[in-house]
Amino acid sequence: MELLRFTPWFLQHLVAFVSLRWRGSYGKVYKAVDCEVRARLEPKDGLEDSTAQQRDCIQWTLDASSKSRKPDHADIMQRMMGLIVASAHQIPSLVAFSIYNLCKHPEYIQPLRDEISGMNDEEVCGVRKHDTPLLESFLKETARLQPLQSTVSINRKVMLPYTFSDGTHVPAGNTICVPQHALMRDAKNYDNPSEFDGYRFVAKDAAGKLASTSRFSHPSPLFPFWGSVGRP
User: Is the pLDDT confidence value at 104 over 80?
Assistant: First the structure.
């Protein structure tokens, strides 16, 4: 994607085609996903629907498509490849840094285990945001201190001149971005901004239980995390 930002518009399609297929990685991923999608789209007469127990991105996409019309293979594959490309960086980075923070701050391991073990199997499979406030706070704090892009994010080229309500004018051709790192480590926005605090986004409710004060999936001007992870 970054390469295409500096590529003339009339060459972008060719450059994208070559870069994605240069090592054959796109084709390998497409083939693997295609096999699974076709298997789930095949009718299963007289057999129990095995997809009922599937809880992954493929099944969510199939379910969302089937609500409006019969799932179409080409449409499902287009959506899946788009999702895979879009999530290829943020989620793996978040998982890696979360494991790193668990190793660096082992005092969070047992509280997180207790929170998850307090749920039965059905609740774990259908987990909602309010079920695991500490886990959500831990992940959000990880994302705050270790965003994928360490300086700025959401780089966008201005196609048409625009004037904001405060009078700020941005001419066409300029590039604008969000100072993600600076905002999320600013002492004006967070207490002890350079310290990891897994409890930063939780507080005890009237019953004495932990409750989220700020969802991971709710970006804000103080938490401009690009690609927040949401759950149903």
Answer: yes
For residue 214, is it left (φ>0), alpha (ψ between -120 and 50) or beta? beta
CA-CA-CA-CA torsion sign (164, 168, 171, 177):
negative
CA-CA distances (angstroms) from residue 170 to 2, 154, 160, 213?
22, 16, 9, 35
The model's pLDDT over 165-219, given as tens digits with 9 standing for 90+, comes to 999 999 999 988 888 889 999 999 999 999 999 999 999 888 888 898 988 887 7
Q: What is the pLDDT of residues 143-159, one digit of tens each?
A: 999 887 667 777 888 99
Structure token pair of residue 179 = 């100072």
Considering only CA atoms, which of 92, 40, 120 is closest in space to residue 227? 92
pLDDT recorded at residue 21 = 63
